[in-house]
Design goal:
heterodimer, A: alpha+beta, Ubiquitin-like (UB roll), DNA polymerase, domain 1, 2 domains, five-stranded mixed β-sheet, 5 helices, globular, B: alpha+beta, Aldehyde Oxidoreductase, domain 4, seven-stranded mixed β-sheet, 31 strands, about 25% helix, about 25% strand, iron-sulfur (chain A), 2 iron, 2 sulfur cluster binding (chain A), Xanthine dehydrogenase YagT iron-sulfur-binding subunit (chain A), oxidoreductase activity, acting on the aldehyde or oxo group of donors (chain A), iron (chain A)
Chain lengths: ~170, ~775
């Protein structure tokens, strides 16, 4: 079965050892997904697989067989309008160099869904009843797999809060 | 860095000391220090949409036909020679196009090294690159593999068989100290400073402290790995690089390969973080050499491990600080001695010894630093070089002195703040660190701090507050130039080979050019990031904004003169000199007679010109030698330390900055916060671990080298005095690095206040807190 990448079907690579990251960047020219460490330590390569965040460097392309991949290039609206979170990143200066940014944005979109689902995290006080809303502490813990070296952490958290606040309206 | 340099700079300083300030650059304050329209306001980054869409193209993403991918084989010993190097299996591996070793590498010269006198030099060390069998550090590249895919190259790299004739190596800091050398100068300053009689003053001091502080090897670890996409077109070399030294890389590669400077093109419009690491290292040279041998374009992208083996970081330091004061806290003696690792082949000074001579007035000084020569990778300038480790030692020592005096640490700074350069007596261009202290103290609620350590707690959490000063010198580089092209539609385009690695270079200089030329923001565009544009020096030393600002200012003066010439006599501006007009409302207007005005469009139309283009250049920065020019800051921190586990959480962090005028409130805040977060990492997490037996770096991944993550970063408050510096373009001083300085000391001082335990070794990990 083909892999759906941002709504378009792509054939599986003939070599089963190809990572999803390499499929995107090296074969499909989708360089919006970034390579930071290629070993699952930095989060720069985060994409959405059936809506859940995955590290594409640690995901084989064949694991996406018949599934939907969404990358940073697939977030904007059909008219080219920025996704609300992309705009929020600009509004709150949630980046400097811009290299970790696509991974931060993809990660945050899936994280918001995990929060809505009530998935607990390390800082959730009561695991059974789930998170007590999208507190900064919850956002920070859940985004800690996405490293930023320029130090845009405050702006990233504010941007995510802006998106969550608008969703709640 | 020699006695001759000391004599030359000392001589120039003496002469300039007697010259009237009016004869020097910045003689009269830049009118844009106060008269501003867009400068100082919050403006979003003009490259923001590209970055959030993922369409900003980085060096490893430049498409190129027929591309080969490079992988490196690194040495596994620190010193010796290659005995046997068998590449037959690697050459036979699938997809391999070339294996390059010192046997077949082209002859290459050592690149000219970074220095005060050559703006086209980018080399970080003086060692030959793959020219012989000698091994000089553990991790040096022994072989380059080129293959059709990166995976094939990586696989073939594992097939290279090597054996060594190992030689004795020096890889232990403690042993190296015995043979340390003492350089004559440190950047632009003398290394050794003795003033007054520090030994006697220390002995006589009513209160004194004497302690030794250690800071580890640190690595910049930008999230974008070093990368270059390289092609030869005949004798022309094209390098799509990730660099904060565009023109210097082009100039250096020309020298390495013996080709003309104008035949090297370096493009680097976006850099995914630099922090001092993105200069010219061996990988670009090896990539270009291999591309030449293979006759095909090459992509080099360093693995995280290769980054640690090939790109030097901040060097390890050991610093002794002794302070003596009278009973009122007035400093009588300041001693700052120490060691930093700096191999003989290394270029970059980690000038921590400069920190203690600018912040505080003191009767006597005894300052010197020594270099430990080890068989290690060359070090580099990492964000806030010198002052980042230097402020850790000096500002922890000040806190220790305040504690010994039973005095508020802010008050101790107030009693010793320098009103002119403490060493030379030169006047400050502008300095008001206590204004920053007052702002910061108010914001964090300094009054809540308990003077006695380990008196505040909240359950298992001990709570403490600390403060520290940060400092970084003002630097404006000569030679940086900018072209302004003004078209008949009234649009101005600014171009310069300057750099963007997150600072907001184009965003801020667009604001600058708009205000300078009296144009609305949307009538100005800026292009940077390519060596074919007018020359720019590096993005380093927090110098780029001032240097490029000076270039745009100079270009605007030329533009006014050129427009007046084009306007001729049949104009309301007839007969006026450049000094009599100003840019306003899309044209030129006489300063004291606003009715005399003509628009750019009208001038160009009558002259039959589509556009007019001028280039301006940043002149020799003599003001840096006449005045004492430093940015300063006051950092405040509140920590919570678990009495049970020793876990340290930074609850609040406040930075108040005295850096001249701020040019863009949003990008400036991000620069300050970013620097402070790197300081947080230095305080609590970061350490490049060296196996001192073998000289091999052990922490070569982001799983082992710990940088602050989201949960480690609290809400950070930053603020600024916004007092203009009358000697600088736009009244501004650099802000890129000062954020990192002072933070580690503020955190350490807060931990002392919380726990009563003084940790003098960074990073402060919980195993160093014995809370018993």
């Amino acid at each position: 079965m083909p892999i759906s990448i941002n709504g378009a079907d792509h054939p599986l690579p003939d070599d089963p050892r190809v990572s999803l990251l390499d499929l995107l960047r090296e074969r499909e020219g989708l360089t919006g997904t970034k390579l930071g460490c290629n070993q699952g330590a930095c989060g720069a390569c985060t994409v959405l697989l059936d809506g859940e965040r995955v590290l594409s460097c640690l995901t084989l392309a064949v694991q996406a067989d018949g599934r939907e991949v969404r990358t940073i290039e697939g977030l904007e609206g059909p008219d080219g309008a920025l996704h609300p979170l992309q705009q929020a990143f600009i509004d709150h200066d949630g980046f400097q160099c811009g290299y970790c940014t696509p991974g931060q944005i993809c990660s945050a979109i899936a994280m918001a869904q995990e929060l809505r689902r009530g998935d607990p995290s390390h800082v959730t006080a009561d695991l059974a009843s789930g998170p007590n809303g999208p507190t900064r502490e919850e956002i920070r813990e859940r985004m800690s797999g996405n490293l930023c070296r320029c130090g845009a952490h405050n702006g990233i958290v504010e941007a995510i809060e802006q998106m969550l606040a608008r969703e709640a309206l | 860095m020699s006695k001759l340099q000391n004599a030359l700079i000392g001589g120039v300083r003496t002469v300039l000391g007697h010259l009237p300030a009016a004869w020097l650059p910045g003689a009269s304050p830049d009118q844009l220090a106060d008269k501003r329209v867009t400068l100082g306001t919050q403006q979003p980054r003009i490259d923001g949409p590209e970055k959030v869409r993922g369409t900003a193209r980085f060096a490893a993403e430049v498409p190129m036909d027929d591309l080969l991918h490079a992988a490196f084989v690194h040495s596994t010993i620190a010193r010796g020679t290659i005995a046997e190097l068998d590449v037959t299996a690697a050459e036979a591996a699938p997809g391999v196009a070339l294996v390059m070793t010192h046997h077949n590498a082209p002859r290459m010269k050592v690149p000219p090294t970074i220095g005060l006198t050559n703006l086209k030099a980018a080399g970080n060390h003086t060692l030959p690159v793959m020219q012989d069998a000698e091994i000089r550090w553990n991790g040096q590249v022994m072989a380059v593999i080129l293959a059709e895919t990166r995976e094939q190259a990586d696989h073939a790299a594992t097939l290279v068989r090597m054996s060594y004739d190992a030689a004795p190596s020096r890889t232990r800091f403690e042993e190296g100290k015995a043979h340390a050398r003492t350089p004559d100068s440190m950047l632009m300053e003398r290394n050794r400073l003795e003033k007054g009689n520090p030994a006697r003053k220390l002995a006589e001091a009513a209160v004194s402290i004497d302690a030794t502080y250690n800071t580890p090897w640190l690595s910049q670890n930008p999230i974008e790995p070093h990368a270059a996409t390289i092609a030869w077109q005949g004798e022309k070399l094209i390098v799509h690089d990730a660099t904060q030294m565009i023109n210097a890389t082009a100039g250096s590669l020309a020298k390495v390969f013996g080709i003309k400077e104008e035949d090297v093109f370096v493009s680097s419009p976006f850099v995914g973080g630099g922090f001092g690491a993105k200069g010219l290292w061996d990988h670009q040279i090896l990539g270009a050499a291999a591309a030449k041998l293979a006759g095909r374009p090459v992509r080099v992208r360093l693995s995280r491990a290769s980054m640690h083996r090939l790109v030097g970081g901040r060097t390890q330091t050991e610093q002794r600080v002794a302070l003596g004061s009278d009973a009122n806290g007035k400093l009588k003696a300041l001693l700052h001695h120490g060691y930093a690792t700096k191999p003989l082949h290394s270029i970059c000074d980690e000038g921590f010894g400069l920190t203690g001579r600018s912040l505080y007035a003191c009767e006597s000084f005894d300052i010197v630093q020594h270099y430990v020569d080890l068989d290690l990778l060359a070090n580099s300038f990492m964000r806030g070089p010198g002052e980042a480790p230097g402020t850790f030692a000096i500002e922890c020592a000040m806190d220790e002195l305040a504690h010994a005096l039973k005095m508020d640490p802010v008050e101790l700074r107030r009693r010793n703040v320098a009103t002119c350069d403490p060493v030379s007596g030169a006047p400050h261009s502008q300095s008001d660190i206590m204004a920053a202290y007052d702002m910061g103290a108010q914001r964090i609620g300094w009054g809540r701090r308990a003077a006695e350590p380990r008196t505040r707690s909240d359950g298992e959490w001990l709570i403490g507050m600390g403060c520290a000063s940060g400092t970084f010198p003002f630097i404006r580089m000569p030679g940086t130039s900018a072209r302004i092209t003004l078209d008949s539609g009234g649009h101005a385009h600014v171009a310069s080979a300057a750099h963007e690695m997150g600072m907001g270079t184009a965003t801020v200089q667009r604001q600058h050019a708009a205000d300078r030329l009296g144009l609305p923001l949307d009538s100005v565009s800026v292009t940077i990031g390519d060596s074919r544009l007018p020359f720019a020096s590096f993005a380093g030393g927090s110098s780029q904004t001032a240097s490029l600002g000076a270039a745009i200012s100079a270009a605007s003066d030329k533009l006014a003169a050129q427009l007046l010439r084009l306007a001729g006599n049949d104009t309301p501006l007839a007969g006026l000199k450049p000094g009599e007009v100003r840019f306003a409302d899309g044209g030129l207007r006489k300063i004291d007679d606003p009715a005399r005005y003509e628009s750019f469009a009208s001038i160009l139309k009558r002259a039959g010109r589509e556009e007019v283009s001028v280039i301006g250049e940043s002149t020799a920065p003599l003001e840096m030698l006449k005045f004492s020019m430093h940015s300063t800051s006051a950092i405040f921190c509140e920590v919570r330390v678990s009495e049970v586990t020793g876990e340290i959480r930074v609850a609040r962090l406040v930075g108040a900055f005295d850096c001249g005028r701020i040019l863009n409130a949003q990008t400036a805040a991000s620069q300050f916060k970013g620097g402070m977060i790197m300081g947080l990492g230095m305080a609590l997490a970061e350490e490049t671990l060296l196996d001192e037996r073998s000289g091999r770096i052990m922490s070569t991944s982001l799983a082992e080298y710990h940088v602050p993550v989201h949960l480690d970063v609290p809400d950070i408050d930053v603020m600024w005095t916004d007092i203009p510096d009358p000697r600088t373009p736009m009244g501004a001083r650099g802000i890129g690095e000062i954020g990192t300085t002072g933070v580690a000391a503020a955190v350490a001082n807060a931990i002392f206040n919380a726990t009563g335990i003084r940790v003098r070794d960074l990073p402060i990990t919980l195993d160093k807190l014995n809370l018993g």
